[in-house]
Design a protein that fits this description.
Order of helices and strands: HHHHH
Number of strands: 0
Distance between the termini: 43 Å
Shape: globular
Number of helices: 5
Length: 112
């Protein structure tokens, strides 16, 4: 009886563990930051990791690791001008855009 119970329970437990480990749940702020990045950055930068559409643009995961958070925040506050060429548009951020992007970048750093 115990053997049958284990045979039935083990696949369910394994599935539960895999689901929890692989779940990519973002905080509301990080999800909004990712949505902003999708709308405004993804034409040049890969959002998470991988090959960016612009070969000169790092993935956002790589960009998140390049500078400390305070430097990234300062760059955002100046309109994302640091390290970008003339092709990079100057952004005017709305309320919470910078905080949301920082939350998304923090999630990218934590995943590594």
């Amino acid at each position: 009886m115990l053997k049958r119970l284990l045979i039935l329970a083990i696949p369910l437990l394994v599935a539960a563990c895999v689901t929890d480990r692989d779940a990519n749940t973002l905080s509301e702020s990080a999800a909004e930051g990712r949505a902003f990045a999708q709308a405004n950055c993804a034409s040049c930068h890969a959002l998470d990791d991988g090959v960016s559409p612009n070969p000169n643009a790092p993935s956002l995961r790589r960009a998140a690791h390049r500078l400390p958070e305070w430097a990234v925040e300062a760059s955002f506050e100046r309109g994302v001008q640091i390290g970008h060429s003339m092709e990079m548009p100057v952004f005017v951020f709305e309320d919470n855009d910078i905080a949301n992007l920082l939350a998304y970048f923090e999630t990218l750093r934590e995943q590594d």
